[in-house]
């Protein structure tokens, strides 16, 4: 593995920074676990404990989570470029600590919504910052592999914790036992980040001086200029933002709709937990390969194929009426997300200059994580109007449309396989 270094300074590369990289992978697994603790349980908590009816109101917790996470991504990008990565990461975990406590003690659904506001801030600050720190450490040659490892850790933790929370809920009830997992994760993360994680901003200057700079050499850009580049002006960056938003729309839909769809068909809580966990399980394991694959085949083939595969998977889920079909659909959906996720983050790392990389990652994740809110709104409104299966069909159609847009607009950004932007 190649590296780049000043004579007496830090060195770029995965092997050269393996201890810190591995520590950040573990921290991101804890970030993912904070989401997993509630994926199986909250929709059922809404119906069985709080007696809520009306999908739009029930899914409000996903919408609030998405808005909070999107806004926090933006803040994380600005603050990590200005003040450093570690303070932002630590702040993210301080916001995560109250989440399981609020859910365990909630006397009303409004407390659950407040908990997800804090969870969104935790995810935006902590996950965005671990992404930026890993990109800082490895340099351009192994960016896809680094993002695959990062996202695999997060989503495997979502899956494992989701299954564990479902099992604990089946044995000990929906509250408080499943949420003790989240409390333990937050405490462990605060200790690890405070004592062992090191600042990575010093690696930025090293990469900026390297012989293979990022595709965009623009420097001295304002926050507004970077926002427009990532949002619509740059074809690669804006295509990544759109595909990321569609992917998380599907994830947000699965968070709210899938447990109710499966439980409504008479499946037991343990079976629901297994089906809900299959999606992030395949997503997580798949990224161990797809991040590396994007470094060898390029980013665009994986992103395009992943969006169309997600559309097909959602159609399978919507058309199925029993566990085998739903299991096949959720696993295909996980594979589609695995193809897309690390490649999209690698696109941002490829194109953004090191000087404004943190802000670019943050803005991309603003658009991507607004997908949670879009998924909650789509799922709630369509499900209330015409049923849960129809909400899944609607998401399948949107994924198909986004796949077509990405196939047209996204150009290859891998440093060794670049094509000129039209």
How would you describe this protein?
This protein is an all-alpha fold and 422 residues long. It contains 17 helices and two strands. The chain has a two-stranded antiparallel ribbon. A hairpin with a 5-residue loop joins β1 and β2. α11 packs across α16.
CATH topology: Growth Hormone, Chain: A
Tell me the strand percentage band: under 5%
**Backbone CA Rg:** 20 Å
Strand order of the largest sheet: 1-2
Summarize the main sheet. Answer: 2 strands, antiparallel
Q: Helix segment count?
A: 17
Mean pLDDT: 89
CATH architecture label name = Up-down Bundle
Tell me roughly what share of residues is in helical segments.
over 70%
Query: What structural class do helix, strand and pairing data support?
Result: mainly alpha
* β-strand number: 2
Number of domains: 1
- CATH class placement: Mainly Alpha
- Principal-axis shape: globular
Distance between the termini: 33 Å
Sequence stretches where pLDDT stays below 50 over 5 or more residues: 1-7
CATH-assigned homologous superfamily = MFS general substrate transporter like domains
List the helices and strands in order.
EEHHHHHHHHHHHHHHHHH
InterPro entries: MFS, MFS_dom, MFS_trans_sf, MFS_Transporters, Sugar_transporter_CS
GO molecular function: transmembrane transporter activity
Transmembrane segments: 21-37, 49-68, 88-105, 111-131, 152-170, 176-197, 242-263, 269-290, 302-320, 326-348, 369-386, 392-411
Pfam families: MFS_1 (PF07690)
């Amino acid at each position: 593995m190649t590296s780049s270094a000043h004579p007496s300074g830090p060195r770029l590369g995965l092997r050269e920074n393996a201890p810190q990289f591995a520590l950040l992978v573990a921290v991101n697994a804890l970030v993912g676990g904070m989401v997993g603790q509630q994926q199986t349980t909250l929709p059922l908590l809404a119906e069985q404990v709080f007696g809520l009816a009306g999908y739009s109101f029930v899914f409000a917790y996903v919408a609030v989570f998405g808005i909070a996470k999107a806004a926090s991504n933006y803040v994380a990008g600005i603050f990590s470029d200005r003040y450093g990565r570690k303070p932002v990461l630590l702040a993210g975990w301080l916001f995560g600590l109250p989440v399981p406590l609020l859910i365990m003690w909630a006397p009303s659904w409004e407390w659950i919504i407040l908990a997800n506001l804090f969870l969104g801030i935790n995810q935006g600050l902590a996950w965005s910052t671990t992404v930026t720190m890993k990109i800082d450490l490895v340099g351009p040659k192994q960016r896809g592999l680094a993002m695959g490892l990062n996202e695999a850790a997060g989503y495997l933790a979502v899956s494992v914790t989701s299954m564990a929370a479902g099992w604990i809920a089946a044995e000990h009830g929906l509250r408080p036992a499943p949420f003790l997992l989240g409390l333990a994760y937050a405490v462990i993360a605060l200790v690890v980040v405070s004592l062992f994680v090191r600042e990575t901003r010093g690696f930025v200057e090293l990469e900026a001086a390297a012989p293979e700079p990022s595709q965009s050499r623009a420097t001295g850009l304002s926050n507004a200029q970077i926002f427009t580049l990532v949002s619509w002006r740059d074809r690669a960056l804006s295509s990544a933002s759109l595909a990321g938003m569609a992917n998380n729309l599907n994830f947000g839909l699965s968070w709210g709709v899938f447990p109710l769809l499966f439980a409504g068909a008479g499946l037991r809580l343990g079976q629901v937990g297994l089906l809900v966990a299959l999606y992030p399980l395949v997503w997580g394991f798949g990224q161990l390969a797809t991040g590396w694959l994007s470094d060898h085949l390029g980013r665009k083939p994986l992103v395009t194929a992943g969006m169309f595969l997600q559309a097909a998977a959602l159609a399978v889920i919507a058309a199925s009426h029993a566990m085998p079909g739903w299991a096949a659909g959720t696993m295909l959906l996980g594979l589609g997300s695995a193809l897309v996720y690390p490649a999209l983050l690698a696109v941002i790392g490829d194109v953004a200059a090191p000087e404004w990389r943190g802000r670019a990652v943050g803005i991309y994740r603003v658009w991507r994580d607004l997908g949670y809110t879009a998924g909650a709104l789509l799922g709630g409104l369509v499900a209330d109007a015409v049923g849960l299966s129809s909400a899944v069909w609607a998401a399948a159609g949107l994924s198909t449309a986004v796949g077509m847009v990405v196939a047209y607009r996204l150009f290859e950004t891998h440093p060794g396989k670049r094509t000129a932007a039209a």
